[in-house]
Write a structure and sequence with these properties.
The chain is an alpha+beta fold. The protein has one domain: B-lactam Antibiotic, Isopenicillin N Synthase, Chain (Jelly Rolls, Sandwich), CATH 2.60.120. The strands form 3 sheets. The protein has an 8-stranded mixed beta sheet. The longest helix is centred in the middle third of the chain and has 25 residues. The chain is globular, with a radius of gyration of 20 Å. Belongs to the iron/ascorbate-dependent oxidoreductase family.
């Protein structure tokens, strides 16, 4: 498609303010050309490991870690190992009740399945707003439009006024965000321990100060073999805590294979972000926490609903500089990334879009 034709089609889609769900509601059987992913042939049969049982996302039980020092040490070791080898793990007994998890998923689903005219009031591409609904933050820069609509809510350190949040999910977004913030502080303590630092180190660096909640809605796709829900990327933050429903489709790239992250009842998926990878250098070896690339496949049975909580301060006017933790650097294990502010890195990431290339290369020395 000529660039002018593509731009016109993108604008026409954007101006409907109905997102991908609007296309599905119209009953389309063929996806518009702007959604056809250039690497779609590989999506129909993603590579799988020869021995699939040897590849499974670690599931870590956080129950009781506040009471027993030996148990806490074991959990720290398991999180360290998962963060270095996978960059992904799931946590259970994390302190957030199943009823809250279910209500959070239902709240996001309720927002996207309400009347279009109600949703349109929140549709914008203004990144300075604390509450934003749109389809594809990188609609005009990505390789292809993704089969996904999103509700963005900046929840910390300064939360939006309750009246600014959609009534369909207002109370649960506020409650869930508070509970995820509490869990985040615990996770950063455990990650600090895994790096051999004082337990409060990453929290003191401000890693747990900012929270962005993203509610994703992946409608059923009539041609899932041609589209992608979310293309290959790593996250531009410190840490992500993901709640996903039972549809599935999330995959992590591990040892050159796409490995499913299976929905586990009551579990939350945790993954290391770029900024934590850029900060972490192991004391014992050159292995570091890994910000793994991942993707979400389009599906024909949806809608798939997920809630990703990004721990990031990229939307705050803070001058704090982040880079490799100096306490962990040595002559044999020198810094691999230059320093940056979170705002600078996030702005670069957003402008670049999800193009399948790592934004971390922008910081590599």
């Amino acid at each position: 498609m000529a660039s002018s034709e593509r731009l016109a089609e993108l604008k026409a889609f954007d101006e409907t303010k109905r997102g991908v769900k609007g296309l599905v509601d119209d009953g389309i059987s063929t996806i518009p050309s702007i959604f056809i992913h250039p690497f779609s042939p590989s999506l129909s049969s993603p590579p799988s490991p020869k021995h699939k049982t040897s590849f499974s996302i670690p599931v870590i039980n956080l129950g009781g870690i506040e009471n027993g020092s030996n148990l806490r040490k074991d959990v720290i070791e398991r999180i360290r190992d998962a963060s270095e080898k996978w960059g992904f793990f799931q946590v259970v007994n994390h302190g957030i009740s199943i009823s809250v998890l279910e209500e959070m998923l239902a709240g996001i689903r309720g927002f996207f399945e309400q009347d279009d005219e109600v949703k349109k009031a929140y549709y914008t591409r203004d990144r300075n707003k604390k509450v934003v609904y749109n389809s594809n933050f990188d609609l005009y820069t990505g390789l292809a439009a993704n089969w996904r609509d999103t509700l963005f809510c900046m929840m910390a350190p300064t939360s939006p006024h309750p009246d600014d949040l959609p009534p369909s999910c207002r109370e649960i977004v506020m409650e869930y965000s508070k509970q995820v913030m509490k869990l985040g502080k615990v996770l950063f303590e455990l990650l600090s321990g895994g790096l051999g630092l004082q337990m409060g180190h990453l929290n003191e660096l401000g890693c747990s100060e900012g929270l962005l909640l993203l509610g994703h809605y992946y409608p059923p796709c009539p041609q899932p073999q041609l589209a992608i829900g979310t293309p290959q990327h790593s996250d531009n933050n410190f840490l992500t805590v993901l709640l996903q429903d039972q549809i599935g489709g999330l995959q992590v790239l591990h040892q050159d294979y796409w490995v499913d992250v299976p929905p586990t009842p009551g579990a939350l998926v945790v993954n290391i972000g770029d900024l934590l990878q850029a900060s972490g250098i192991s004391l014992m070896s050159n292995d570091k926490f890994k910000s793994s690339e991942h993707r979400v496949l389009a599906n024909s049975i949806g809608p798939r609903v997920s809630v990703a909580c990004f721990f990031s301060t990229g939307f705050l006017p803070t001058p704090r500089i982040y880079g490799p933790i100096k306490e962990l650097a040595s002559e044999s294990d020198p810094p691999k990334y230059r320093e940056t502010t979170v705002a600078e890195y996030v702005a670069y990431f957003n402008d670049k879009g999800l193009d399948g290339k790592s934004a971390l290369d922008h910081l590599r020395l």
